[in-house]
Amino acid sequence: MKEELKASVVFSSITIFDSFRTQCDVLITLLTRLIVAKVSLDRVDDFLVGTELLDAYTPNITYRENQDVVPRDEIAIHEALFTWTAEVSTESAAAQSSPSETERRFVLKVDQETLRFKKGCLNLIVGPTGSGKTSLLMALLGEMHYIPVAKDSYVSLPRAGGVAYAAQESWVQNETIRENIIFGSPFDEERYKKVIYQCGLERDLALFEAGDRTEVGEKGITLSGGQKTRLTLARAVYSNAEILLLDDVLAALDVHTAKWIVDKCFKGEFLQGRTVLLVTHNIPLTASLADFVVSVKDGRIMSQGSLDVALQNVESLVEEVERKTVELKNEEEKEEEEESSASSEDVPDGKLIVAEEVQYGQVGSSSAKMYGYAFGGNHAILTIGTCVGGLLTVGGLNVLQTWYLGYWARQYEVLPPSSVPVFFHFEIYGLILLAAALISAFTYAFHAVLAVRASRTIHIRLMQSVLTTTLRWLDITPVSRILTRCTGDINTVDSRLPNMLQELGVLGTRMITQLIALVIYTPIFIPPAVVLVLLGKWCGDLFGRAVLCIRREQSNSKAPVLAQFEGALAGIVSVRAYGAEEAFEAELRRRVDANVRITRTFYNVGRWMPTRIEFLAAVFSASLAGYLVYFSNVSASAAGFTLNMAVTFTGAILFFIFTWNELKSSANSLERIDGYLNIEREPGASSTGEPPAYWPASGDLRVENLSARYSPDGPKVLHNLSFHIRSGERIGVVGRTGSGKSSLTLSLLRCIYTEGDVYYDSINTTVLNLDALRSKITIIPQMPELLSGTLRQNLDPFGEHDDVTLNDVLRSSGLFALQKTNDQDKLTLDSGISSGGTNLSVGQRQILALARAILRKSKLLILDEATSAIDYETDAIIQQSLRNELGSDTTVITVAHRLQTIMDADRIMVLDAGRIVEFDTPRELLNREGGVLKALVEESADKGVLIDMAVEGR
């Protein structure tokens, strides 16, 4: 209070405190980033340290001490246990201890005698659903944890000659058919053509315009289940591996195709002398080829040797094989070999996945409007105006408080120090600061609320757009591209865009208020300021064009990295089995390098602009300071105020240009999201599309002139189908691959483009809302989806049923028939289910999906190969349960390759090339000379049983 407030002290202090405030802002930003980095590093560390590894990648595992007893040239297991989790101890596994209520632990035991497969021949692995057949293959591949139970325990799978694996859940890459079959092996055209022929793919390739150059899409979406299975088999056969592990590759094939695979492929030249381990339920079709049979039940090896020995030890197989003793007919197939004369230029490229579009020029105005409406809501002008008004007021108050300090200091120049009212000036200055702080807090809080609303609105719109799009759009768009928009681009909208908009508002209002001050005090510097603005704009335009292009490329380079991760993880077992880890790692590095190069360039270009901004600001400030010192007669306080305004003004205007261009580059995320808001979508709900409350009262289904296609301009896959299914009928649908079976089910659900009329309980489904229609139809796909949680949550996610009801549907679905009463490892309502149901066999997943369908009690139930991975005995139990448990007015449409599944149906529909070629009762169709169904039955190994089923029922 005793010192005079001089202008030199005031404006020097302001400069110091401004610099200190800037450094504090930087420090807070760095601390925030350090916290984020620590969280990310902790998550990475938890993943690296806490992830359970396979035994082959785990140091100091005990069985490596016994490598001297392992036979080098045998496929064998001796005195060992195998588990899916490393937490199971040797003692608990050997005792088969009871798992916890929420965790189910499966143990495969080979502890009675050495399991030794025969080399150079076909080995069958048989057993009921969930018995451990796939687990046995996984144990040999090292995908399960190995627990030795004796000093001389070992597990051996020679890999020197190579191993090939065809999974039960067929895994294909998002590549062409040819690249999926070759899978990194040298291309041998003669071998390749023979493999295509032996795996029955010639007819399928003829259906594709681009032949084997057709892209299969993510997860093989362009292929049927049978086509994917044969493609996976072809990959294994084409490889030069000495050992082939085939997991139930016949399950998804119709009778004709399965017989073709056995006759042409399994008996063909490429499997001669190779060791094949085949898991199958189709014993009669493959028994004549098997030199060695292993039977598995409840995780134990029941027998090994001949088929007769296996039947003696597994009673459930006896009846099945006794019914199928009819000898396979060795009919000579008429083979028509057509050589294409078209040149490579005439063959379409087969592209399915559309290349990700890269925009050019500035970000479109539609993206800005989208964010503006999301940010401002229904009163965008008012809300945005409030934010801008608040920032202008804060900017004006900041200029006012700087000016008032100069005015306060000038009082000491015109008045005696004792006459200056210090407390009065202090109160005025404090009120200015208080007003600025309050208005600033309100403005920032208001902006934060609007930013959160904008992020939420855009995210909801993006989710609604993607979740309501057509199947065709999902077919041609990789999931990785969707993920980049739902993660990286949404993150930009959540944080980067609001921060830059706020910074632009602060810089813009600061420029306006400080420019007014400069014009008032130093009008001579208006021309230099204009020159400064023009130079800054020139640099900004140059920077903006470069950084926007780089930003777009950077955004697009993330999706291939995610796609490679996703593809490798989905088929990690196959990748490891083939020994293709290095090839996948090399491809991943290539894609990561491409992303890192663009990202590094983006940050380097980002440093170019600030350097020039700082230089221009320094030149302008130095020029103004020289003018004020040597050529101006203004007072010290006015000079200090002007210089302070000039320094902050130059920084504000140049950084405004920089931030503006940064905003435009970040707006690329808005552009990418906006593109997904305008994708093709399914029809929305309307009030006129709501059905009556009682609907559907029956399962009556009438179809008139139904045609369907997968894209508006694509070829028809169904041609003028007309039929009537009475309520309560059980309809079987059969046909060879590509005949239109799955297309028919999709058209009933309006998942693809349809023409004609479908009447469900007398109401035309074309006028119904899609959610109303689909919620009243239950479909069980070949590969059902299960969610992470308990079995109860998967059956009844909304908690609408009690445990008694849930257990009843599990019993009806046939699950309990697979489990012993005292089985400590049996599935219960509290058993844990991993994401996708990966801790269950495919057959068990299909059974749970059936239980879920029974629980829904829909009037129309569609089974699309829903029991393909289930053994015949369990399939019979399920079919009997469906007849008993479903209401008399429930219509069941069963799509199946297994004739046994549908031969006792009320009527059978036979499709071929999208047309109905036969539709009548099984008895009538079997009496029809030259009939398609009759031909399929004649080719079947259990012809007599199928005829009996058609005549008498089960």
From TrEMBL:
Keywords: ATP-binding, Membrane, Nucleotide-binding, Repeat, Transmembrane, Transmembrane helix, Transport. Residues 88-323, 701-938 form the ABC transporter domain. It holds the Pfam family ABC_membrane. Residues 325-347 are annotated as: Disordered. Residues 391-665 form the ABC transmembrane type-1 domain. PROSITE patterns: ABC_TM1F (PS50929), ABC_TRANSPORTER_1 (PS00211), ABC_TRANSPORTER_2 (PS50893). One of its GO terms (molecular function) is ATP hydrolysis activity. It is a multi-pass membrane protein. The keyword Transmembrane applies. PANTHER family: ATP-BINDING CASSETTE SUB-FAMILY C, ATP-BINDING CASSETTE TRANSPORTER ABC4. This is P-loop containing nucleoside triphosphate hydrolase protein. It comes from Marasmius oreades (fairy-ring Marasmius).
